[in-house]
Structure formats: C-alpha cells, structure tokens
Write a structure and sequence with these properties.
Layout lengths: L6 H17 L2 H8 L7 H9 L19 H14 L5 H15 L2 H12 L5 E4 L5 H4 L19 E6 L2 E12 L6 E8 L6 E8 L5 E6 L8 E13 L7 H37 L1 E2 L2 E2 L4 H32 L11 H22 L11 H15 L2 H12 L3 H8 L1
Parallel strand pairs: 1-4
Antiparallel strand pairs: 2-3, 3-7, 4-5, 5-7, 6-7, 8-9
Helix pairs in contact: 1-4, 4-8, 4-9, 5-6, 5-8, 8-9, 8-10, 8-11, 9-10, 10-11, 10-12
C-alpha cells in the first residue's frame, strides 16, 4: 500500500478547499439549508461543471472522470470541513453506484451521464428508517426490511408488463428535490419474497414528497409516499440487490468517514484558534495545561480516524480494481464508527471550550455536533457499526460455538 497521495489527488483537495472556502462559509451554509432545495444550486453547478465532482467515481464511458473511491473520499473530506449542503451523497454515493451495478445498459446510458454532469440528482428511498440496515452497515440486509410481504414498507407488484409501487419511505436524503428516485421495494409475496430496486422519475403520478425537519439541517431529508406509482425495474428481476446495496454501503461509509474527519478537523482548528485569543485571568485560555490536554486528545483521535478513513478508501479502490487480495476488505463501517466518534468528541469540545458563545444558535459549533448526531441516527450508531464488522469478520464465532454447546 502506497500511503502517499498522487499529484492529481492533491490537486482535487486543493481546488475543492479553495472553492469551498470562498463560497461556503458558515453564513452561506445557514442560508442554503433554508432554501426549498436545502442547498445552493449555484455551488452545486460549480462543483459539477468546474470540478466534475458528481462523476468523479463514474466510468469515463458514462461521462465520469474514472477515479476511485479514494478520490471521492478526499473530495468529501473537504466538503465535510465546511458542512457543505449538497446532493452529492444521495446522488453520487448512494444512487449512482446502484444504477451502475444493477442497471441495464439503456438505463445506465440514460441516467449516468446526466448525473455526472450535475444535470440530474438522484436519491435512494428505503422503506421506514432502515437505511443503515439496507446498506448492510448494522445488520444483514438479506432479510425482510423492505416489506417482507406484510403491510408496511414498500410493496411492488407486476401489472400488465409494468410495475406498481405502494408504500412509504422515511429519511430519504434529498428525496424532496431529486429528479430520480431509486426505490427499494418488496416483491413476490411469501412465495418468492425478494427485494428489488425501481426507478421513479420526478413528477410520477401518485407520488408525494415532503421535506422533513431533521436534526442536521445540512442533510435534507424527505418522506416519500407512493400510491400505486408506476415504476421501472432497475436491471432484471434476478439482480443481486443485497450484494449491490452492501457494496454501495461500504463506499458510502468510507465517504462519510472522510467527511466526518474533515468536519472534526475543522471543528478542532476553530477551537484552537479561539483558545489562543480568548483570555481569562490575564492569559489565553489555550495556555492552561488542562485545555492543552483536552485538545491534544482530540487531535490524536482525529488523526486516528483520518488514517482509518484513508485505509478504507484505499481498500474500496483496490477491491473495485480487483487488486489488494485479503487487504482489500470492506473497512468502511469501522472507519465510519471511528470518524463519528472523532467528530462527536471534537464538536463537544468545541461547544465546551467556546464557553457561552458555543451554545448559541448564531455560532456554527452546534452544526458540527448536529452533523455527528444526525449521521449516527442515519448510518449508525457507532457501536452497531463495530458489532456488524465483528460479526462479518467472525470475531466471536468461537464464543458462539461454545455458548451453543
């Protein structure tokens, strides 16, 4: 494994940092999240047209740049520093890989070039609040989380050569504004119970989308209601949906881990800047040994989380390229757990060490804390991410055998 970044990767990071620093300050973030879309369309266009960010990890054959998860993670680390609200996670990290992995060639050609160009945003709609389960991050996703033949979830039925969907999905990231929805639905009843993915276009008859109030305003969420909505099956009925979702989940966890590291690093930077200039008892509070120790512990935790995120990104890229052998395991969930812990610690210390101002609505410290808490609600919590990783690695297999005996 070569831990050094290439010149191209360094350029991606540098260019993104310049753009985000210039156009996505704390006031810009607060203004963007209060718009109907929940993000700044002009900034999104700049990210797409100038940097090609939505197509960074898509093949060149579909208008993408042809990079790996490592470059996408580096880009999201920079966006995480500013908590940039954008449809990148929903579109390029969750929806696009599923279209690429499972879609027919006509579906890929119709949607992926538009996604890569930033013209089309997409979202993954999962029944209920089971996004982390669907992505295989906190449990086995081969079960009945999509509906299981019961009332609830999203049910799909074939009708005269077309598919119809009925049900509801909660916590759909950017689901209120996406031009294309990738909907996970249960089909086949009890006899041939299985989960399939469907494409639903914006404006479909019978679909209602409502933006929800969320803890983390920088991640817009929506409720999607489907009432006998006509849908297009993604790929074929025999596609390996759980495997594709798990693969997308590992990359998503890797990207989220890098994003959390960027946010934690920026929260730590802001705190260090503040304690250097804030005086108490005639001296800067950063000169007190207790404050130094607390920030040193945060620094170590952030650096450890960064190493985990970079390793997970390398492993994802090596696995996609068919290289890396046993070292290219799915490490995204563990990296995400460490990243979320680091962000929560850095944000908590930022609130505490900023004193009275750290608790105010006007200060941005609370945004970092809400990002950590919101991501744990959506993709965690951290202890379940670790438990699932241990289960997949067979870490406690011996104990389970002994208990059975």
């Amino acid at each position: 494994m070569d831990a050094a970044f290439s010149a191209e990767q360094d350029e991606i990071r540098r260019t993104l940092r310049e753009l985000v620093t210039k156009r996505c300050g704390p006031d810009d973030v607060k203004a963007a999240v209060r718009t109907p879309r929940g993000y700044d369309p002009a900034l999104w266009s700049a990210l797409a047209e100038q940097l090609g960010l939505p197509g960074l990890a898509l093949p060149e054959a579909y208008g993408g740049v042809g990079c790996t998860a490592a470059e996408l993670a580096l880009g999201c680390e920079e966006l995480g520093r500013a908590l940039t609200p954008s449809p990148l996670l929903a579109t390029a990290v969750l929806a696009a890989p599923l279209i690429l992995a499972l879609g027919a060639e006509e579906q890929r050609a119709a949607h992926l070039p538009r996604i890569a160009a930033g013209e089309l945003t997409a979202a993954l709609a999962v029944p209920g609040t089971g996004l982390a389960t669907a992505l295989g991050l906190v449990g086995d996703n081969a079960g009945d989380w999509s509906g299981g033949g019961r009332a609830g979830g999203v049910q799909a039925r074939a009708e005269g050569g077309t598919w119809r969907l009925y049900g509801q999905a909660e916590q759909v990231l950017d689901g209120h504004s996406a031009g294309l929805l990738v909907v996970a639905a249960h089909a086949g009843g009890f006899a041939r119970s299985r989960t399939l993915l469907f494409l639903v276009r914006e404006g479909a008859t019978g679909m209602a989308r409502t933006r929800q109030t969320s803890l983390d305003e920088t991640r817009a969420q929506a409720r999607v209601e489907l009432r006998d909505v006509r849908a297009e099956l993604l790929g074929g009925a025999e596609g390996e949906v759980p495997g594709a979702l798990a693969a997308a989940g590992d990359v998503a966890a890797t990207v989220l881990a890098a994003e959390a590291v960027g946010a934690a690093d920026r929260a730590l930077e802001r705190t260090v800047e503040y304690v250097r200039r804030r005086e108490q008892f005639g001296r800067a509070i950063g000169s007190f040994q207790a404050v130094k120790h607390r920030l040193a512990e945060v620094y170590v935790q952030v650096q450890a989380a960064r190493s985990a995120a970079y390793y997970a990104a390398w492993a994802a890229g090596a696995r996609a390229a068919g290289a890396g052998g046993q070292g290219a395991e799915r490490a995204g969930a563990l990296a995400l757990a460490q990243g979320l812990d680091a962000l929560r610690t850095a944000a908590s210390e930022a609130v505490q060490l900023h004193g009275g101002i750290g608790f105010t609505w006007e200060h941005e410290a609370h945004l970092y804390f809400k990002r950590a808490s919101g991501d744990e609600l959506l993709f965690g919590p951290a202890h379940r991410l670790r438990a699932r990783a241990a289960e997949r690695a067979g870490l406690f297999a011996g104990n389970a055998v002994r208990e059975a005996v």
